[in-house]
Amino acid sequence: MTSTSGPAFPLTTAGWIPVVDRAAGRVREVGLLEALTRAHELQLAVQPGQETAVLLRWLVTVYDAAAGPDDTNAWDQAWRADDLDPHGRVADYLRRWEHRFDLYHPDAPFAQCGHLNQFPRPPAVLDPAYLAGAGAALFHPALRDPAGPPLPPAEATRNLLILLGYDVAGIKGAPGGGKTYGAQLGPLATSTRLHVLGRTLAETVLLNLPPQPRAEGDTPVWERDCPDPAVQIRRPAGRLDYWTWPARRIRLHPDAHSRVQALAWHDGDRVADGLYATAELDTLAVWRRTARGTLTPAQPLDDWTEHPLPWTLTRPLRPDTTWTHGALTHTLHAAQRGTLPPDYPLRVEVSQTLTGPHGSTIQGIIGGTVDLGPAHLHTTHTTARALAYCDQKATSLLGYTRAKIKTMPFGGDQGNPAEKRVALEPHAADRAWARLLAELAELADPTDLDQLTAALAPFAEQLAELIEGSLDALPWASAHWTRRLDLDTRVWVNNVINNIPTTLGPPTSPTETKPVMGPEGRRRGRDACAGRGLRSSP
Predict the structure, then answer these.
(1) Are 389 and 503 in contact (CB under 8 A)?
(2) Any bridge partners for residue 390, and if so which?
């Protein structure tokens, strides 16, 4: 099938971005212009995971290219403005580049390769489920039809951007015939994604956009010449280039009703030096710095439950950890400057892509939404240290228990080791975390050790109970070993409570008296321990 032209579908004004319109009181699809100029009245209305990661990435990029703040002063002014486009820069920019935002432009279609004119693939391959491999058709009837019905342009646009961000690695068909080998995994599938959630779309865009000037030569894909069909290996010129990276050469072929009836799909640009060359540019991914100083994707999701461990996501907010996330750190700095109010609710959405061998299939997108409490918990020294203490202790308890299980005379099987099944029930862990945040947020005096103990002791107690419940559920665990582990867990609770003064109290010199808990702190500690059959330290 050959074509060189097609109907127009202008992404600037045609509806394709699902939003909750507070003014209209309903869910609508809007174009880029309305999404950004009315972002203070809108919120994205898509499922967490792929669609959120993709749409937010492109919205942030368009705003950054048009009117992105280049320093903190400009960002603070943008935050305090009534909307994202108080001076009309976004509208002017989209009018200037409107021709490059046409999904079916005859020469330079949006985010595609206009040089392709053979369309051998059916529209069904645009379905994100197609990336799961041959077995996906068992669960997605739409994939069973080799051709499939034509796709409406709005759905095709969203699926196109998902394909550019998440396409699998491996062998791809070459333009004109033949094959190419070694295609890289899509840029959004290579790392753990994390987005800071604002109260409106405008706030979400700004919170996920650390201010910086545009780097020399850095342009988004629509400001560049339409790429050649051949594979290119290069380094990104900057974050605008990388955030709109043309990882594949795709071209959609519409029918007379603007529906996609076929497409071309080939390998595209590859990042020289791979993942490590992009870590500094990708401020919407969670990274962990290794002992060698390189950045690698962080893992805030539990292996067994595939659910976020909420306390781990406070790590990018602390300078003493190896975890980093550009947008979350930028949000913390805005709170420290006073631009964000102390009670501003910090919420994040995290997602991680599970891939098959060699990245050849996508087996799932896991994640969830995590509350991190009001901003002042992370800007106040004592409560920030308390959250760090909880993260440290919760991580050590889970790791210690799993390590113990691994050495014991039962272990499940190779594909399902027992230590992995020692996990925290996700909803109960979330409730314990929410209670901790609420109690810390309501402290009359965050420096008072009695009040800190009263807030932290129930959290330790609840985590220990969850670990014990997980141990009880192991079908192959003997009563002797589970009793032994239960005793260790109870000792852990006692140690957490009694170490609060030395860990969270003011620093002491060898000649000073160490801080001690007052009567209320000791009473709460004794109550927590008594519930577990323990004696607290005298």
Answers:
(1) yes
(2) none
Please state whether beta strands 345-355 and 412-413 pair in parallel, antiparallel, or not at all (unpaired).
Answer: unpaired
- In angstroms, what CA-CA distances link 297 with 189, 277, 502? 11, 13, 33
Given a contact cutoff of 8 angstroms between Cβ atoms, the answer to whether 65 and 118 are in contact is no
- Tell me the whole-structure pTM to 2 decimals: 0.91
Give the Cα separation of 386 and 375 in Å (integer): 14
Query: Domain coordinates of the chain in residue numbers?
Result: 17-274, 380-538
Angle of helix 326-337 versus helix 72-80 axis, rounded to 10: 80
Q: What are phi and psi of 499, to 5 degrees?
A: -90, 0
d(CA 182, CA 30): 37
Place of tokens 């319109």: 21
Q: What is the DSSP string of 427-454?
A: HHHHHHHHHHHHHHHT-S-TT-HHHHHH
Residue 92 tokens, joined: 């002017």
Over the chain (538 residues), the average pLDDT of each successive run of 10 is 66 98 94 98 90 96 98 98 97 98 97 96 92 77 76 97 96 92 94 96 98 96 96 95 97 96 96 85 94 90 91 94 95 98 97 93 93 97 95 92 77 62 90 97 94 94 90 67 69 88 69 42 51 40
Q: Could you report how far apart the first and last alpha carbons of the chain are, in Å? A: 83
Tally of CB atoms within 10 A around 475:
8
Q: What single letter denotes the amino acid at residue 41? A: E
Task: Compute the CA torsion angle 300, 304, 306, 312 (nearest 10 deg).
Answer: -20
